[in-house]
Design goal:
Elements (H helix, E strand, L loop, with lengths): L3 H4 L5 E5 L4 H13 L7 H14 L3 E3 L2 E2 L2 E4 L6 E11 L9 E10 L3 H15 L2 H9 L3 H9 L3
Helix pairs in contact: 2-3
Length: 151
């Protein structure tokens, strides 16, 4: 079973992130993800994230984006969660700005757990109360704890 506590480092949760656009949001999400110290090649990861996002947008709707990538720049499945200071255009299916981003990265060849995590996040983000709780989290630690509480 996918455990948020095992896959999200507390240091990879951030609130009030000042992204200007999708490109800067993805770079900031990648920086948050690498704070766990488990990404040996952050620049390669960012290149892979940007390439994946160029194939098709990952805006889920209702203000949530879930960029995700399988690549050799990481050795294990992990994710970061960011609440942006302001919503940005993310190519979401509903056309609304995104202010919550879940960045998921996993090793190439391990699509099963990757898809399970993506599915678990997407299901949670369909809950308006959960999205509101993310938007009200007072700090990084509270955001991480909120995510952990959904295990």
């Amino acid at each position: 079973m996918i455990s948020f506590r095992q896959l999200l480092s507390e240091s990879s949760a951030a609130v009030d992130v000042p992204a200007k656009d999708k490109t800067s949001a993805l770079a900031l999400a990648m920086e948050a993800l690498t704070r766990n110290g488990k990404v040996p090649d952050p620049q390669r990861l960012l290149k892979e994230i940007m390439g994946r996002e160029g194939q098709s947008p990952t805006g889920l709707g209702a203000g949530v984006g879930a960029p995700h990538v399988l690549c050799d720049a990481v050795g294990e499945l992990m994710f970061a969660v960011l609440r942006l200071k302001e919503g940005i255009d993310f190519g979401a299916i509903d056309g609304k700005p995104v202010d919550i981003i879940f960045l998921i990265a996993g090793p190439r060849g391990e699509s099963g757990p990757h898809l399970q995590l993506l599915s678990k996040i997407a299901r949670l983000c369909h809950d308006a109360g959960f999205r509101q709780a993310i938007r009200l989290a007072p700090d990084d630690k509270a955001l991480a704890e909120l995510i952990y509480s959904k295990d």
